Amino acid sequence: MSYELATDDLDKLLGDAAGAAASLRPSTEPEAGARAEGHDPDGLIRVVVSAGGLVESVEIGPRALRLGSQEVADRAVAAINDALDRLAADAAEHPSPSAEAVAELTAKLEQTRNMSLQQLRAYTRSLQDLMNSL
């Protein structure tokens, strides 16, 4: 293996890996297991939602029980919307790369590591041969 060829191969692999890293497209979808809590404007109703918009729990405070059913329903909708907005905002603030992009980058980095090891072994053999010839 010539030095120039090995350098060109390594340079190409490193360029490919850098390109794959740059192409990681963050996802603004909430991660599995993500949760958010929301309240109505007066804090009478508390709701917890999880990724996918599933409502995990609803707590209705004692003061809300004195309200009419329509008022409680409106406040529940406000609390759910608040929780969903918080979940979306958290996902936008902390985007995660797509699984495909991470897998592609991992494969390119593994290929780069293997190529580097092969080149290091070739250089070591060349140095050993040079040392033995002296």
- Rg calc: 28 Å
Question: Average pLDDT value?
Answer: 79
For the largest beta sheet, what order do the strands appear in spatially? 2-3-4
Query: Judging from the principal axes of the Cα atoms, what is the shape?
Result: rod-shaped
Biggest pleated sheet: 3 strands, antiparallel
Please identify, by name, the CATH architecture of the largest domain: 2-Layer Sandwich
pLDDT < 50 runs, ≥5 residues: none
Count of discrete structural domains? 2
CATH C-level label of the largest domain:
Alpha Beta
* SSE string: HEEEEHEH
- The level of helicity is 55-70%
CATH topology of the largest domain: Ybab, Chain: A
Describe the structure.
InterPro entries: YbaB-like_sf, YbaB/EbfC. GO terms for molecular function: DNA binding. It holds the Pfam family YbaB_DNA_bd. α1 packs antiparallel against α3 (99-133). The chain is rod-shaped. It has a three-stranded antiparallel beta sheet. Strands 1-5 form a two-stranded antiparallel ribbon. Helices cover 60% and strands 16% of the residues. By secondary structure, it is of the alpha+beta class. It has three helices and five strands, in the order αββββαβα. The longest helix is centred in the C-terminal third of the chain and has 35 residues, at 99-133. It has two domains: 3-25 and 98-133; 35-96, Ybab, Chain: A (2-Layer Sandwich), CATH 3.30.1310.
